[in-house]
Amino acid sequence: MEKVSLKVKGMSCDHCVKTIEENVGTLNGVDRLLVDLEEEDVVIEYNADTISLDKLKEAIEEQGYEIES
Ligand SMILES: [Cu+2]
Predict the structure, then answer these.
(1) 20 CA → ligand 1 middle, Å
(2) What is the whole-number distance in angstroms between the Cα of residue 69 and the centre of ligand 1?
(3) What is the CA angle 6-10-15, rounded to 5?
(4) Could you say which architecture CATH assigns to the domain 2-67?
(5) pLDDT digits (tens, 9 = 90+) for 20-59
(6) How many Å from the N-terminal Cα to the C-terminal Cα in the chain?
(7) Which sequence spans correspond to the domains of the chain?
(8) How far is the CA of 12 from the centre of ligand 1 (A)?
(9) How far apart are CA 62 and CA 23, in angstroms?
């Protein structure tokens, strides 16, 4: 199990949190996803055999958010 913490720009409210939880947190291979709105942090625990970090980043960007790191 891998764990990554991403800085994500553009999340402004609970709706954004829900969007990410529902569209990224439910992806096959994602075990756990936590959004910290204040810190602009998205912490994801995932199985790298099933889903790549690039895919996770893509999924966040597809929802209209920008990844800083
Ligand atoms: Cu929002």
Answers:
(1) 10
(2) 20
(3) 100
(4) 2-Layer Sandwich (3.30)
(5) 999 999 999 999 999 999 999 999 999 999 999 999 999 9
(6) 20
(7) 2-67
(8) 4
(9) 9
